[in-house]
Design brief:
Layout (H helix, E strand, L loop, with lengths): L5 E5 L4 E5 L4 E5 L7 E3 L10 E5 L5 E6 L6 E6 L4 E7 L3 E2 L7 E2 L3 E10 L5 E5 L2 H4 L3 E4 L5 E5 L7 E5 L3 H5 L9 E7 L9 H20 L8 H13 L31 E2 H13 L3 H14 L10 E2 L10 E2 L13 E2 L11 H15 L4 H21 L18 H20 L3 H22 E2 L4 E2 L26 H14 E2 L2 E2 L14 E2 H13 L3 H12 L11 E2 L6 E2 L5 H14 L12
Antiparallel strand pairs: 1-2, 2-3, 3-4, 5-12, 6-7, 7-8, 8-11, 9-10, 11-16, 13-14, 14-15, 15-16, 17-18, 19-20, 21-22, 23-24, 25-26, 26-27
Helix pairs in contact: 4-14, 5-6, 5-7, 5-14, 6-7, 7-8, 7-9, 8-9, 9-10, 12-13, 12-14
Length: about 600
């Protein structure tokens, strides 16, 4: 079985996964959530790929160009060496916030380092999730690949190498420099190696400047830098939305059916991602997300969903692609996500927490402040209406609702932050009224969520199960770290949910059976809980061990296999990388040098 040994490249519009052997096995054009062009990761035979194939005597290594999202794959047989630099162009084109160049196109820049290397290319686009048979044509200077049913939906491959030889997978002997450019659009300018140099240099400088404006850490700097770059890459520039992951249907457990499409914007995940970017010095990303929230609330009476399309779409209809076998044979493959109509009351707490930071750090003009104040009141009304009701919780239980303790806690967070916002704006009457309701929620949680029988807060009011999400009660200010009930809960949750050095979300049966993989972020949550309750050495040791389970490029997916520690679930996962950054901020707080260098 293969691990998720992939690198990701992208430009805040779309992204691709490149295997450790240099094969592009996942790409959607023109946007993150568009139908796939390559989907070998979901079906090795039908999915389609863009591969560089060498003789077996070549060793292959891979690393990012430091400080960037440009991926370098090196092929060497000792005598002959070449490298491929994979990237999507991204750079500023003007002074306005929206002045970015981020076309739906992927460059593969080939440089011969030594000798006379040889390789073949497998260029096999499988458009629209491999639902279409395709035709290749070679007009003047490019390969046009389009579906038989609708040739207008074509993609274009430009190259300095012989196009017919590329299509027929003949052996190629590259000169000093060569290139491929795969574009969703036909190019209106000449593409030659000088243009490739220009796009590479502009993109490299953009990422270097971006990471240079980020907070610096003495410890774990490489891991934080990579996680920052991943979070940035997964934000959708046109709207400010943030994706949970760039893939669909990578299974939480091999051979089971917990396979979901994560190419959408969950309020929970996005709020956490933006809060993390804000903490490391990137206010612009947080401001764009606030604009996204404003855009999805077109009128005051609009209800909140737990998730949206990356352009604010509300309908995310789920469909099963029966013609694809799935990752490692784990069907079904899903596009769309039926969870969009679920009720998850915890989402409003994360969102209000980010809005509170908006008011603290970069409030806009008077009309903008008033717009967001209406959003705040709308969220508060939603909390008033819903907090006493059951929901489907942070883990999106599909076929049942319960009174989840963590959902109640996050409803308290929503009101607590609303109170602070009201106080900032001088709206004391609102603050007083909302504080009274927040106190009712806190009392309700202590009365109904604490269970002496297990020495912990429980997953729901009606059961005695443990849940890793309860480790966040302290982080959001609901309870003090040294409160006896929190100390006892941390101990109980660790003893009950830790297995093979990793954490379950929960262990009780849900609508798909018993969970069998570790949810990566839950182990990060335990590390924080141990640290703030005084177990600092244990926390650091657990953190170091968890970092060793990343893939060869330092990337994390959603889940880990308890026994083998292989990556599982959609990839890369924003949740996991934001938790890594937050944990380093906690563990290395005294070592932050935090330099903000303006370009």
């Amino acid at each position: 079985m293969e691990n998720l040994d992939y690198g990701i490249i992208g430009n805040c519009r779309t992204a691709a996964l490149v295997s450790k052997f240099g094969s592009i096995d996942w790409l959607c054009f023109p946007d993150f959530d568009s139908p796939s062009v390559f989907a070998k990761i979901l079906d090795k035979e039908r999915g389609g790929s863009f591969e560089i194939v060498t003789d077996r005597d070549y060793a292959v290594s891979q690393q990012y160009v430091p400080g960037t999202n440009i991926l370098c794959t090196t092929f060497s047989n000792g005598k002959d060496i070449f490298e491929i630099m994979d990237f999507f162009p991204r750079y500023k084109t003007g002074d306005e916030a929206a002045d970015y160049y981020l076309p739906p196109e992927l460059y593969r820049y080939i440089r011969v380092i030594q000798g006379n290397p040889r390789f073949r290319v497998i260029y096999n686009p499988a458009l629209d999730y491999a639902r279409e048979r395709v035709n290749h044509r070679i007009p003047d200077g490019y390969i046009r690949t389009g579906p038989e049913s609708n040739p207008k939906d074509s993609v274009y491959l430009y190259s300095s190498l012989p196009l017919k030889s590329v299509l027929e997978s003949e052996e190629l002997v590259p000169a000093k420099e060569e290139f491929f450019l795969l574009s969703y659009n036909q190019k209106l300018i000449d593409i030659d190696i000088r243009r490739v140099h220009l796009e590479y240099s502009r993109t490299k400088v953009y990422w270097l400047n971006w990471i240079n404006r980020s907070k610096k850490f003495r410890d774990y700097s490489a891991q934080v830098e990579r996680s920052m770059l991943i979070l940035k890459l997964m934000s959708y520039q046109p709207t400010g939305a943030v994706l949970a992951a760039v893939t669909t249907s990578i299974p939480e457990t091999l051979g089971e059916v917990r396979n979901w499409d994560y190419r959408f914007c969950w309020l929970r995940d996005a709020s956490m991602s933006i809060e993390t970017l804000l903490s490391i010095g990137h206010k612009g990303a947080a401001k764009r997300f606030i604009s996204f929230i404003k855009s999805i609330l077109r009128k005051k009476s609009d209800a909140f969903q737990i998730m949206y399309g990356i352009r604010g779409e509300r309908m995310l209809t789920e469909e099963i692609l029966t013609h694809l076998t799935g990752y490692e044979g784990s069907a079904p493959v899903r596009i769309g996500n039926a969870a969009y109509h679920q009720k998850q009351n915890d989402s409003l707490g994360y969102l209000m927490d980010v809005i509170y930071k908006y008011y603290l750090y970069f409030p806009g003009t008077l009309d903008e402040i008033e717009d967001i104040w209406e959003v705040v009141k709308n969220i508060v009304r939603s909390v008033y209406d819903e907090w006493r009701n059951p929901d489907q919780g942070i883990w999106e239980i599909r076929n049942s609702s319960s009174h989840y303790v963590f959902s109640k806690v996050m409803c308290w967070v929503a009101l607590d932050r609303a109170v602070r916002i009201a106080q900032l704006l001088g709206k004391e009457s609102y603050a007083k009224t909302w504080q009274q309701e927040a106190s009712l929620i806190k009392k309700d949680v202590h009365d109904n969520g604490w269970k002496e029988e297990i020495g912990s807060f429980s997953q729901t009011y009606s059961n005695l199960e443990l849940d890793s999400s309860l480790l966040l009660m302290e982080e959001y200010g609901f309870i003090d770290a040294m409160d006896p009930r929190f100390l006892s809960s941390v101990k109980a949750i660790k003893e009950g949910l830790m297995h093979e050095g990793l954490m379950y979300r929960y262990k009780n049966k849900d609508d798909f059976g018993l969970p069998s993989s570790a949810f990566t972020i839950c182990t990060f949550w335990l590390i924080r809980a141990l640290y703030v309750t005084g177990e600092k050495e244990e926390a650091r040791a657990l953190f170091d061990r968890l970092l060793s389970y990343s893939n060869h490029l330092g990337l994390f997916s959603e889940d880990l296999d308890f026994k083998t520690k292989r990556q599982l679930g959609n990839f890369p996962q924003a949740y996991s990388h934001l938790a890594l950054i937050n944990t380093v901020e906690l563990l290395a707080r005294e070592n932050i040098t935090s330099r903000f260098i303006r370009p």
